[in-house]
Amino acid sequence: QKEVEQNSGPLSVPEGAIASLNCTYSDRGSQSFFWYRQYSGKSPELIMFIYSNGDKEDGRFTAQLNKASQYVSLLIRDSQPSDSATYLCAVNKENYGQNFVFGPGTRLSVLP
Amino acid sequence: ETGVTQTPRHLVMGMTNKKSLKCEQHLGHNAMYWYKQSAKKPLELMFVYNFKEQTENNSVPSRFSPECPNSSHLFLHLHTLQPEDSALYLCASSQGGTAGGQETQYFGPGTRLLVL
């Protein structure tokens, strides 16, 4: 089992819809969780991080964490064509360390 | 200059060449990272430095040699690379240490490397 798994996509949604991106992780002791956006040919850009179970909202983005199910998701409301990118889920397996593992990414396409 | 910078942005080298990648962070962080990103593969963590001490080396071939002279600078020395080493090499930094708090990584723009 891979440490961090994501559907590779592409996930296509119409403009204005909600895009839902999912991520599962295998290490039950993982402590912190991150969503990055990566445009083609560019480096990953941090969108959100979440440490506690539940929802965390930031503008059009909502991260959801369920540690019991080892599941983290990212919702993008009112999707725009500019949101078209690959979304990377990352997990830090240590509470006060630097042991990061990335998923393969989900490619999102928002259709005008 | 802000954030994390990397030079060069593009590099073409032959298999017998020696070159170095440079990373500099202006965020006051104490941990720095090298990642490799190949087409259709997840980001692969190569090396981690925390307060200039190497804490992770994920079975990286010896033809890649990191150097961290201080908390703001990180180098990746390359020699006798193979064509399969062609990839995007990303540097990142985070707060570092073990005194508490959560780590959040910020990435540089990357160096696109092509080995002929």
Write up what this structure looks like.
The complex is a heterodimer of chains A (112) and B (116). Chain A contains no helices and eleven strands. Chain A is globular, with a radius of gyration of 13 Å. The model of chain A has no long low-confidence stretch (mean pLDDT 92). Chain B contains no helices and eleven strands. In chain B, the strands form two sheets. In chain B, strands 2, 4, 5, 6, 9, 10 and 11 form a seven-stranded mixed β-sheet that branches. In chain B, strands 1-3-8-7 form a four-stranded antiparallel β-sheet, with no helix packed on it. Classes of the chains: A mainly beta (112), B mainly beta (116). At the A-B interface, strand 4, strand 5, strand 9 and strand 10 of A face strand 5, strand 9 and strand 10 of B.
Instruction: Give helix and strand order of chain A, one letter per element, not per position.
Output: EEEEEEEEEEE
Helical content of chain A (DSSP H or I, runs of 4+): under 10%
Distance between the termini of chain B: 33 Å
Structural class of chain B: mainly beta
Kindly state the number of beta strands of chain B: 11
Helix-strand makeup class of chain A: mainly beta
Poorly predicted regions of chain A are: none
Tally the helices of chain A: what do you get?
0
How much strand content do the residues of chain B show?
A: over 45%
Unreliable runs of chain B, pLDDT <50, ≥5 residues? none
